[in-house]
Design brief:
Helix content: over 70%
Number of strands: 2
Largest sheet: 2 strands, antiparallel
CATH class of the largest domain: Mainly Alpha
Oligomer: single chain
Order of helices and strands: HHHHHHHHHHHHHHHHHEE
Number of helices: 17
Length: 470
């Protein structure tokens, strides 16, 4: 196999290894840190709102800048931007591990988000540039498999390190991985860029997106004490005004960070509505589940991490099968029933009291949620890619990725309002799970009305799908 890029023929497995290792840092980090949060909160003597910013600070900059990171790679070199992102992520990880207080930890997490925004789109971009069309699918499949594996291992690794060593080791494991990736990039991976691109960087769009999302999340978290006052409501309102300005800017700027014309496709628009609703529920619920396991049910961090395994394992195991459903029965059925199952999983999380064995309390909930995820994750990705012309598939995937991460960012802040307002942590958690279930039902409704009952025939021309009535 040969590389497609500026460097001629190379041994492209090195590109695959570098992409997998680079992505593994962000995937492990995103799932491992959640399990460590209750211990961080206790050791650093932080409030619930401060602890939320450990996740939200990272997610804010990742969500707002991930599209910009992809554009930077196309213009200035994918290997270069990927490497810069890895280095920033590693340095910020060291800052997290050494943080003496919550303020420095949050600041370091924000810098981690910047690194993630540069490196996350770069991994797939490197694969697309280095493999020809025939071998690219297999390479991306291997990348996806290892990414899923690291996501599954993240909670267990995070729980084990937190319990037997310290939560600081969750961040330190990124350093040797980053060093290996940077060495491989320097010695084995060719540079590639879009030579025909004359795009300019949308710096104004990046600032507006970050400021708007930041104000919304800041205002929501400020209300987490259970007292809704004019000041935080005003901050949230200001955030939405800035986000409105962001959309207006993107509609008229020559080289937008987010292409608004893609939303002219009804399927693409509804897929992103569906994405926002479900990933807000998933992001928020997966943040608070470890807290209730550790603080209410007295699980150890390792046990809390392992308790999430059924969700990830079922999702990964069944996603390859579900990915082909769109081609045979269309998107409507798997997306509808996937959302309904996810809603049932959230309700199952709300049912347990403060006692009972794992197998009768949280195992059923994690398993049901995993089955729901298996039905909607891969078909949703396929739907997004099929809803736009093939030449815009990469941009469409990036927009949908940004929507999913933004949804998780908002979900944690929004569900936090209910968790902190409850008469007890368990009561607040139950209310949050009910709200998550309502989000899932809304997603199911969007699937029912937003996607026709069709199956997709083989072949597409210029992004127009050929359909057969089911």
């Amino acid at each position: 196999m040969g590389a497609i890029g500026n460097g001629g023929s190379v041994k492209v497995p090195w590109v695959l290894v570098a992409a997998i290792l680079g992505s593994s840092m962000t995937f492990i980090d995103s799932t491992a840190v959640n399990v460590s949060l209750p211990v961080m909160q206790r050791e650093l003597h932080t409030t619930t709102g401060q602890t939320q910013w450990v996740i939200e600070g990272y997610a804010l900059f990742l969500s707002a800048l991930i599209l910009l990171g992809g554009a930077l790679g196309d213009i200035y070199g994918r290997r270069r931007i990927f490497a810069i992102g890895i280095v920033i992520f590693a340095i910020a990880s060291l800052g997290c591990a050494l943080a003496p207080n919550i303020g420095i930890l949050i600041a370091a997490r924000c810098v981690q988000g910047v690194g993630g925004a540069l490196s996350t789109p770069g991994s797939l971009a490197l694969l697309s540039a280095s493999y020809d069309e025939q071998s690219r699918g297999r390479a991306i499949g291997l990348w996806s498999g290892f990414s899923a594996l690291t996501s599954a291992l993240g909670p267990v690794i995070g729980g084990w390190l937190t319990q037997d060593f310290s939560w600081r080791y969750v961040f330190l494991i990124n350093l040797p991985i980053a060093l290996a990736v940077v060495v491989m990039l320097a010695r084995r991976v060719p540079e590639s860029r879009d030579e025909s691109s004359d795009r300019r960087i949308d710096a104004v769009g990046a600032v507006l997106a970050t400021l708007g999302l930041g104000l919304v999340v800041y205002g929501l978290i400020a209300m987490n004490a259970g007292r809704i006052s004019a000041a935080p409501l005003g901050i949230v309102a200001a955030g939405f005004v800035v986000l409105g300005l962001f959309i207006a800017w993107e509609r008229h700027v020559p080289d937008p960070m987010m292409r608004c014309d893609l939303f002219a496709s009804r399927s693409f628009s509804m897929a992103n509505v569906y994405t926002f609703l479900l990933y807000a529920a998933l992001g928020g619920s997966m943040y608070f589940v470890p807290f209730v396991l550790i603080n209410v049910h007295h699980y150890t961090p390792t046990e809390a991490g392992a308790a999430l395994l059924p969700f990830v394992v079922i999702l990964v195991a069944a996603s390859r099968w579900s990915g082909g459903l769109v081609a045979t029965i269309g998107a409507r059925v798997p997306l509808l029933f996937g959302a309904l199952l996810a809603g049932a999983g959230f309700i199952a999380y709300a049912l347990p009291g403060s006692d009972g064995s794992y197998w009768t309390t949280f195992f059923p909930a994690a398993s049901i949620l995993g089955l729901g995820g298996a039905l909607f994750v891969a078909p949703l990705t396929t739907t997004v890619m099929n809803s736009v012309p093939v030449e815009h598939a990469g941009v469409a995937s990036g927009v949908n990725n940004a929507v999913a991460r933004t949804a998780g960012l908002i979900g944690v802040a929004l569900l936090g309002l209910l968790v902190t307002a409850g008469t007890s942590y368990l009561a607040g958690f139950r209310a949050a799970m009910v709200l998550s279930a309502l989000f899932a039902l809304a997603a199911a409704a969007s699937a029912a009305i937003g996607f026709p009952r069709i199956r997709v025939a083989a072949g597409r021309h210029g992004g127009e799908e050929r359909h057969l009535r089911a």
